[in-house]
Predict the 3D structure of the following.
Amino acid sequence: MKVTVLCGGVGGARFVRGAVEVAGADSVVVVGNVGDDVEVLGLHVSPDLDSILYALAGLNDEQRGWGRAGETWEALAVVRELGGESWFALGDRDLGLHLVRTQALRAGEPLSGVTARLASALRVETRLLPATDDRLRTWIETPAGSFPFQEWFVARGHRDEVDGVRFEGADAAAPAPGVLEALAEADLIVLAPSNPFVSIAPILAVPGLREALAARRVPCVAVSPLIGGRAVKGPADRMLARLAGGTSPRHVTRCYEGLVDAIVVDEADAHDLAGLGEVRPIVTRTLMADADARRRLAEVALGAVPA
Amino acid sequence: MKVTVLCGGVGGARFVRGAVEVAGADSVVVVGNVGDDVEVLGLHVSPDLDSILYALAGLNDEQRGWGRAGETWEALAVVRELGGESWFALGDRDLGLHLVRTQALRAGEPLSGVTARLASALRVETRLLPATDDRLRTWIETPAGSFPFQEWFVARGHRDEVDGVRFEGADAAAPAPGVLEALAEADLIVLAPSNPFVSIAPILAVPGLREALAARRVPCVAVSPLIGGRAVKGPADRMLARLAGGTSPRHVTRCYEGLVDAIVVDEADAHDLAGLGEVRPIVTRTLMADADARRRLAEVALGAVPA
């Protein structure tokens, strides 16, 4: 069975690891969000691709929830001491990757090519594709103004309410090599438990992606990132409340109108399954507290395909 | 007393620290070599300026002889694992500085401006000036071909004999702001115990520098980098033998013909003071084995000025 997963950052990355453990590394293709990519200290940082890469390589920090396990922070401490750009937490090991990627991008290698090389060097067998090799950046519209994603998310601690999200460069972006093929060849498409607005939407904003998903001939299942109407982490619940009118499964589903056939929701949301229309609810425990839990969640989501 | 020191890397940096301890931070201006600057992993590295900066800030690694004390190497290990450019040893703390400097240079700040800011952030009160803000790069001519300095020095371990040295970009370079003033206002000019060919010569290759030194009205004293005809570290002795015909004080002096009034040489070279012409030899112990030794050497060198 071939599974293609559209995926954002940390939560999605955990799910992807579960999916790979269930279906096998060769059977999964991951299409990662690049809307929250950012230039920090002159380096090109792709936080979502890296979260996925680190999770698949088993290098991610399970405790902290982001970045690499055993990370150190010597370079950043010096940057701070020297009055440099230190608002974005770049660990030393993380920096090593950003340096290699940035140099390759400057030399003209596409992001998809660098990503494949990095994955290979980390012995990650699962294909990880950026949604696009082109520059696509998520901007957050708030009452306090319009901010690049990371400025809103990290520098401002995502405290501003979100009135809208736009994707700079999306119109001119093309799907990265392999992305449309991965959608066309999949037996199942999964939208990982990621933020619909800032993780999945920027992937779907790449011209051709949404259309390919809408025209799918195979099931597509979304995994809700909410548990009992709350985000495990991050602003997904606040964004859903404000932008979609609520945090019930139907509100999540509405973000993916016409694109999904089933939605995996947590038991804590099982009381509120009205308004899903033709989208089939699949109720299970969705908190990926440990390796077993993420595997069970992936099993349920991947079970959405008729055998 | 105002002292202006022309200086290369590690040995020179130690001497400069001694000079500052003797004369006071306000009394010393250092003009640093930039010929061995190099782009590594997309970062602008100025090894000599950094050696001086680290020495003056008391951050240098006395044991290893280069780089920062307490340095860690996490980023570089990842770069290596990912197949990136790892031939040049960049520690994590060192990287922090390179990231800040590179970002500033890309934003259009001149090297002298960045250097002053870095020094200030590290609470270094001594003025440290790059010889030039323009791109000037040392190339080494060898029987095996022509190499950028760091490729010859680090990547090839300076094993190739040197037939010549040239300074790419020197013709179009201008002295950095303050350099000519520092030479004009000095009561004493010192050529630090650095490699004459690849540390001091690239400074003198900046148009106007050699002329200013030749036209000086104050004493200029060179400190020989050799002890008993041998370099403490590095290829200075081999280069002198091949390019100047020997490793005696007169061969070092010949590198600075018309530019120096005195030369500080080690006791181990006191037997061979012939051929110095009008250059006055000053014999002392020159090995800067510890803080006392570097201070004593600086005292002797700075004593070359008539009170």
In short: The CA atoms of residues 138 and 167 of chain B lie 5 Å apart. The interface with chain A takes residues 41-43, 71-72, 74-79, 81-85, 91-93, 95-97, 99-100, 102-103, 106, 117-118, 121-122 of chain B (CB under 8 Å).
